[in-house]
Design goal:
Blueprint (H helix, E strand, L loop, with lengths): L1 E8 L13 H14 L10 E8 L3 E6 L5 H11 L1 E2 L5
Parallel strand pairs: 1-2
Antiparallel strand pairs: 1-3, 2-4
InterPro entries: DUF6100
Length: 87
C-alpha cells in the first residue's frame, strides 16, 4: 500500500489545493516501485491519496502492508485536520 498525503498550509487559500491527477505522483510511484515494490500495477500495489490541512505545505509518502492501512488512516484523522471525510 502506498499512501500519498498532501498537506497544505491552513493559513493560505484553499484554491491552491491541487487535484490528484498530476504527473508528480506517477513519477514518485515509479521511483518507489523500482526499489521497494514488486510492481506498481493494481495487482501488486494499492494507492491512497489524501489532502490535509497543517501548519505548512509538504507531501509525505507512506509505504505499508495492506493490513496496516486501516490503523494508519485512523491515526491520520486523529493527528491532522483533514479536508475529506474518511471513516
Amino acid at each position: 500500500m502506498v499512501c500519498f498525503s498532501q498537506v497544505y498550509d491552513k493559513s493560505l487559500s484553499r484554491q491552491r489545493i491541487r487535484d490528484y491527477d498530476n504527473l508528480e505522483f506517477k513519477q514518485i510511484l515509479d521511483t518507489i516501485a523500482a526499489y521497494v515494490l514488486l510492481d506498481d500495477t493494481g495487482l501488486f500495489c494499492d494507492s491512497y491519496h489524501t489532502t490535509e490541512l497543517g501548519e505548512r505545505d509538504y507531501t509525505v509518502v507512506y509505504i505499508m502492508e495492506k493490513s496496516a492501512f486501516p490503523v494508519w488512516v485512523k491515526s491520520r484523522r486523529e493527528r491532522l485536520e483533514t479536508i475529506s471525510e474518511i471513516l
